[in-house]
Amino acid sequence: MKTLKLVLLLASIVFASCSDKDEEPAPVGPSLSYSETNFSSTYRSTGNSGLPALNWNGEVGNISLSGGQHGIYINDDNGTLHWNKYLAPGTYKVTAVATNSSGQATVEIEVENEFMGYFEGGLNANPASTTLTNDMTIDFKADGTAIVNVGFNGVGSWTRDESTVTAVVSFDGGTNFITFEGELSSNSSPAWLKGFYYNGQQAIEANKLGYFAVKID
Fold first, then answer.
1. Which of 45, 59, 82, 210 can pair with 100 through a Cys bridge, CB separation 3.0 to 4.6 Å?
2. C-alpha closest to that of 41 among 117, 140, 112
3. Residues 75, 68: Cα–Cα separation, whole Å
4. Is the model's pLDDT at 144 over the cut of 50?
5. Is the CB of residue 122 less than 8 Å from the CB of residue 134?
Protein backbone atom coordinates (compact mmCIF):
# COMPACT_ATOMS: atom_id res chain seq x y z
CA MET A 1 0.00 0.00 0.00
CA LYS A 2 2.88 2.33 0.87
CA THR A 3 4.50 1.46 -2.46
CA LEU A 4 1.30 2.38 -4.34
CA LYS A 5 1.05 5.73 -2.57
CA LEU A 6 4.69 6.49 -3.42
CA VAL A 7 4.12 5.66 -7.08
CA LEU A 8 1.04 7.89 -7.20
CA LEU A 9 2.95 10.73 -5.54
CA LEU A 10 5.82 10.47 -8.01
CA ALA A 11 3.38 10.35 -10.92
CA SER A 12 1.62 13.50 -9.75
CA ILE A 13 4.95 15.33 -9.43
CA VAL A 14 6.00 14.29 -12.96
CA PHE A 15 2.58 15.28 -14.35
CA ALA A 16 2.75 18.68 -12.66
CA SER A 17 6.26 19.22 -13.99
CA CYS A 18 5.17 18.36 -17.55
CA SER A 19 2.11 20.62 -17.22
CA ASP A 20 4.31 23.55 -16.22
CA LYS A 21 6.49 23.04 -19.30
CA ASP A 22 3.47 22.96 -21.61
CA GLU A 23 1.98 26.24 -20.39
CA GLU A 24 1.67 29.06 -22.93
CA PRO A 25 4.10 31.99 -22.43
CA ALA A 26 2.63 35.12 -20.91
CA PRO A 27 1.44 37.69 -23.48
CA VAL A 28 3.92 40.47 -24.30
CA GLY A 29 2.97 44.13 -24.72
CA PRO A 30 3.79 46.12 -27.86
CA SER A 31 7.18 47.55 -28.74
CA LEU A 32 7.61 50.91 -30.46
CA SER A 33 10.67 52.88 -31.56
CA TYR A 34 11.56 55.63 -34.05
CA SER A 35 14.93 56.07 -35.75
CA GLU A 36 14.75 59.77 -34.81
CA THR A 37 12.68 61.59 -32.19
CA ASN A 38 13.73 65.24 -32.70
CA PHE A 39 12.61 66.99 -35.87
CA SER A 40 13.09 70.48 -37.32
CA SER A 41 10.64 72.09 -39.71
CA THR A 42 9.93 75.54 -41.13
CA TYR A 43 6.68 77.48 -40.99
CA ARG A 44 3.99 76.42 -43.53
CA SER A 45 5.86 73.26 -44.50
CA THR A 46 4.93 69.60 -43.98
CA GLY A 47 6.91 66.63 -42.72
CA ASN A 48 6.82 63.26 -41.02
CA SER A 49 8.80 61.01 -38.72
CA GLY A 50 9.15 58.11 -41.12
CA LEU A 51 7.85 54.63 -40.43
CA PRO A 52 8.57 53.46 -36.85
CA ALA A 53 9.48 49.95 -35.73
CA LEU A 54 6.14 48.75 -34.32
CA ASN A 55 5.49 45.21 -33.10
CA TRP A 56 2.20 44.20 -31.52
CA ASN A 57 3.69 40.80 -30.46
CA GLY A 58 0.68 38.82 -31.56
CA GLU A 59 -1.90 41.04 -29.89
CA VAL A 60 -4.37 43.44 -31.45
CA GLY A 61 -3.66 47.04 -30.50
CA ASN A 62 -3.97 50.69 -31.41
CA ILE A 63 -1.66 53.70 -31.57
CA SER A 64 -2.55 57.24 -30.60
CA LEU A 65 -0.99 60.61 -29.82
CA SER A 66 -0.85 62.23 -26.39
CA GLY A 67 -0.29 65.97 -26.01
CA GLY A 68 -1.09 66.62 -29.66
CA GLN A 69 -1.24 70.07 -31.23
CA HIS A 70 -3.32 71.39 -34.11
CA GLY A 71 -1.27 70.47 -37.16
CA ILE A 72 0.37 67.36 -35.63
CA TYR A 73 -1.24 63.95 -36.00
CA ILE A 74 -0.36 60.26 -36.10
CA ASN A 75 -1.25 57.55 -38.60
CA ASP A 76 -3.19 55.09 -36.44
CA ASP A 77 -2.38 52.23 -38.82
CA ASN A 78 1.42 52.39 -38.89
CA GLY A 79 2.42 54.95 -36.22
CA THR A 80 4.01 57.54 -38.53
CA LEU A 81 3.89 61.04 -37.05
CA HIS A 82 2.92 63.84 -39.46
CA TRP A 83 2.77 67.63 -39.26
CA ASN A 84 1.08 69.90 -41.77
CA LYS A 85 1.24 73.58 -42.73
CA TYR A 86 -1.31 74.56 -40.08
CA LEU A 87 1.19 73.93 -37.29
CA ALA A 88 1.94 77.23 -35.53
CA PRO A 89 5.59 78.18 -34.98
CA GLY A 90 7.12 76.83 -31.78
CA THR A 91 8.55 73.69 -30.21
CA TYR A 92 6.15 70.85 -29.44
CA LYS A 93 6.58 67.67 -27.42
CA VAL A 94 4.10 64.89 -28.09
CA THR A 95 3.97 61.23 -27.13
CA ALA A 96 3.19 58.29 -29.40
CA VAL A 97 1.32 55.62 -27.42
CA ALA A 98 0.96 52.02 -28.60
CA THR A 99 -1.48 49.99 -26.50
CA ASN A 100 -2.78 46.43 -26.56
CA SER A 101 -4.41 44.15 -24.00
CA SER A 102 -1.00 43.13 -22.64
CA GLY A 103 0.63 46.50 -22.14
CA GLN A 104 1.72 49.85 -23.50
CA ALA A 105 4.77 51.41 -25.15
CA THR A 106 5.41 55.16 -25.37
CA VAL A 107 7.89 57.35 -27.25
CA GLU A 108 8.27 61.13 -26.75
CA ILE A 109 8.81 63.11 -29.96
CA GLU A 110 9.81 66.76 -30.35
CA VAL A 111 8.97 68.91 -33.37
CA GLU A 112 10.54 72.37 -33.68
CA ASN A 113 8.67 74.53 -36.22
CA GLU A 114 10.77 77.58 -37.06
CA PHE A 115 9.05 80.81 -38.06
CA MET A 116 10.13 82.36 -41.36
CA GLY A 117 8.61 83.14 -44.74
CA TYR A 118 7.64 85.65 -47.41
CA PHE A 119 4.31 87.41 -46.72
CA GLU A 120 2.38 89.49 -49.24
CA GLY A 121 -0.45 91.96 -48.68
CA GLY A 122 -0.96 95.63 -48.06
CA LEU A 123 -1.29 98.51 -45.62
CA ASN A 124 -3.01 101.85 -45.19
CA ALA A 125 -2.43 105.14 -43.38
CA ASN A 126 -5.61 104.95 -41.28
CA PRO A 127 -5.47 102.83 -38.08
CA ALA A 128 -9.27 102.94 -37.84
CA SER A 129 -9.71 101.19 -41.20
CA THR A 130 -8.89 97.70 -42.47
CA THR A 131 -9.08 98.71 -46.11
CA LEU A 132 -5.67 98.20 -47.71
CA THR A 133 -4.61 101.04 -50.00
CA ASN A 134 -0.98 100.17 -50.80
CA ASP A 135 0.87 96.94 -51.54
CA MET A 136 3.54 95.61 -49.20
CA THR A 137 5.58 92.49 -48.51
CA ILE A 138 7.50 91.31 -45.46
CA ASP A 139 10.25 88.73 -45.77
CA PHE A 140 11.01 87.12 -42.41
CA LYS A 141 14.43 85.51 -42.70
CA ALA A 142 15.56 82.55 -40.59
CA ASP A 143 18.45 84.61 -39.20
CA GLY A 144 16.05 87.16 -37.66
CA THR A 145 16.32 89.71 -40.44
CA ALA A 146 13.15 91.37 -41.73
CA ILE A 147 12.83 93.08 -45.13
CA VAL A 148 9.70 95.19 -45.67
CA ASN A 149 8.90 96.44 -49.16
CA VAL A 150 6.36 99.22 -49.71
CA GLY A 151 7.67 100.21 -53.13
CA PHE A 152 11.13 100.54 -51.57
CA ASN A 153 12.85 98.41 -48.98
CA GLY A 154 13.13 98.78 -45.25
CA VAL A 155 15.57 96.49 -43.43
CA GLY A 156 15.63 95.49 -39.79
CA SER A 157 14.94 92.58 -37.46
CA TRP A 158 11.98 90.58 -36.20
CA THR A 159 11.00 88.82 -32.98
CA ARG A 160 8.12 86.51 -32.06
CA ASP A 161 6.30 86.06 -28.75
CA GLU A 162 3.78 83.23 -29.13
CA SER A 163 1.51 84.46 -31.96
CA THR A 164 2.69 88.09 -31.84
CA VAL A 165 5.29 88.97 -34.47
CA THR A 166 7.16 92.27 -34.35
CA ALA A 167 9.44 93.72 -37.02
CA VAL A 168 11.46 96.90 -36.48
CA VAL A 169 12.84 98.27 -39.74
CA SER A 170 14.44 101.39 -41.13
CA PHE A 171 13.82 102.78 -44.60
CA ASP A 172 16.68 105.29 -44.45
CA GLY A 173 19.64 103.19 -43.37
CA GLY A 174 19.12 103.36 -39.62
CA THR A 175 18.18 106.93 -38.75
CA ASN A 176 14.42 106.47 -38.40
CA PHE A 177 12.47 103.30 -37.61
CA ILE A 178 9.01 101.87 -38.15
CA THR A 179 7.61 99.04 -36.01
CA PHE A 180 5.20 96.50 -37.52
CA GLU A 181 3.40 94.35 -34.95
CA GLY A 182 0.68 91.83 -35.72
CA GLU A 183 -1.05 88.64 -34.66
CA LEU A 184 -0.30 85.49 -36.61
CA SER A 185 -3.19 83.18 -37.52
CA SER A 186 -1.84 79.78 -38.54
CA ASN A 187 -5.08 77.77 -38.58
CA SER A 188 -6.16 79.06 -41.97
CA SER A 189 -5.13 78.88 -45.58
CA PRO A 190 -3.52 81.24 -46.28
CA ALA A 191 -2.06 82.19 -42.91
CA TRP A 192 -2.48 85.86 -42.03
CA LEU A 193 -0.40 88.34 -40.07
CA LYS A 194 -2.58 91.36 -39.23
CA GLY A 195 -1.85 94.37 -37.07
CA PHE A 196 -0.60 97.93 -36.99
CA TYR A 197 2.57 99.84 -37.68
CA TYR A 198 4.04 102.58 -35.54
CA ASN A 199 6.55 105.39 -35.73
CA GLY A 200 9.67 104.47 -33.74
CA GLN A 201 11.15 101.26 -32.39
CA GLN A 202 8.21 100.27 -30.17
CA ALA A 203 4.50 99.56 -30.64
CA ILE A 204 3.21 102.60 -28.73
CA GLU A 205 -0.46 103.43 -29.20
CA ALA A 206 0.17 107.17 -29.53
CA ASN A 207 2.60 106.50 -32.39
CA LYS A 208 0.25 104.30 -34.43
CA LEU A 209 0.38 105.16 -38.14
CA GLY A 210 -1.82 102.61 -39.91
CA TYR A 211 -3.07 99.07 -40.41
CA PHE A 212 -1.42 96.21 -42.32
CA ALA A 213 -2.35 92.66 -43.33
CA VAL A 214 -0.07 90.18 -45.08
CA LYS A 215 -0.48 86.48 -45.88
CA ILE A 216 1.49 83.38 -46.80
CA ASP A 217 0.22 80.15 -48.36
1. 59
2. 112
3. 13
4. yes
5. yes
- pLDDT (tens digit per residue) in 175-200: 999 999 999 999 999 999 999 999 99
Question: Is pLDDT at 214 greater than 80 in this prediction?
Answer: yes
| CATH number of the domain residue 153 falls in | 2.40.128
Answer for the pair 189, 166: CB distance below 8 angstroms, yes or no: no
Same domain, 87 and 168: no
Handedness of CA 142, 147, 148, 151 (dihedral sign): negative
Instruction: Label the pairing between strands 134-140 and 117-123.
Output: antiparallel
Q: How far is CA 23 from CA 12, 27, 38, 132, in A?
A: 17, 12, 43, 77
| Predicted pLDDT at 36 | 98
- Please count the structural domains in the chain: 2
Does some domain include residue 185?
yes
* Co-location of 131 and 47 in the same domain: no
Within-domain flag for 18 = no
Q: Is there a single domain that holds both residue 90 and residue 155?
A: no
Residue 80, domain extent:
31-114
- Cα dihedral 133/139/145/147 (nearest 10): -40
HEC secondary structure over 156-184: EEEEEECCEEEEEEECCCCCCCEEEEEEE
| Residues 6 or more apart in contact with residue 13 via CB below 8 angstroms | none
Classify residue 135: in a domain, yes or no: yes
| pTM confidence score | 0.85
User: Last residue of some domain: 91, 114, 137?
Assistant: 114
Tell me the C-alpha distance between 121 and 81, whole Å.
Answer: 33
